[in-house]
Amino acid sequence: MPGRWLTFDCFGTLIDWRHGIRTTGELLFPGHGAAFLDAYAGTEAEVESEGSFHRYRAVLTETTRRVARQLSLDLKPDDATALVSTIPYWPPFGDVGPALGELRKEGWKFALLTNCDRDIIALTQRRLPVPFDAVVTAEDVSAYKPNPAHFLLFQSTFGASADVWIHVAQSYFHDIKPTSELGITRVWVNRQGEKDDPSLADAVVGNLTELPGAVRRLSGDAGLSPSP
Fold first, then answer.
1. Which helix (H) or strand (E) holds 28?
2. 227, part of any domain
3. Are residues 136 and 200 part of one domain?
4. What's the pTM?
């Protein structure tokens, strides 16, 4: 039987990316964790887009170096890989387990479409409270979202035979824009109250507590009934 798929971005949507960056920045540069987070968020996509593809561990390391320079902070050479070391321990949001558990009971399959390496996401999955049925990483497609390669690979592998496919993500830039362009049904998890155009998403939720209801509405719009 065809499946019903929910695909997720991982960091920022399921895993508290901001907490992980900020607390690691605070460990490296006491008193500067918040500034490190702010600068990091604006620099990582720039590093991802430059030159040929590099694994995410290289992106984490290079972005850390650049942010330290931007903020005139003293980064010890051995500390440049700190985010690579801490990322497996970044916590999931508290709303992840209840929401995904409820959706799993309703028959949904789950996949991660992540700007990450295979080994890093394998460690991260140990923190997630529910299992995932498929994973597409940046390493698999040699590209970083918003490049559409993640979505196209998932579509060619699973999407064409799905009853319905809904993508769920926090990042407007990395996920909502490209899925809009591809015509993929999408839910924007606007955890930070960002002011981007909400009409680009099929549904907007403030957190995952609201996700099961949004998914039911969207799957109902597609003419589907919940799985028994």
1. helix 17-28
2. no
3. yes
4. 0.93
